[in-house]
Amino acid sequence: MKESDQLEGDLRFNNDFRSIYSTIAERWLEVDPDIVSNGNYEQHEFISPLTSN
Length: 53
Prior knowledge:
Layout: E1 6-7, E2 10-11, H1 17-27, H2 33-37
Antiparallel strand pairs: 1-2
């Protein structure tokens, strides 16, 4: 692994967990994500909305 891809010897992260919380709040819990994450963050496409049967 290139040194530029590391942070103190670990893989450098590139994801803000607030964007994951925001996506789950909106798609699964059906609440305003701004309330949960205190801001507007990128939505993740790998987290699909829940479907009801």
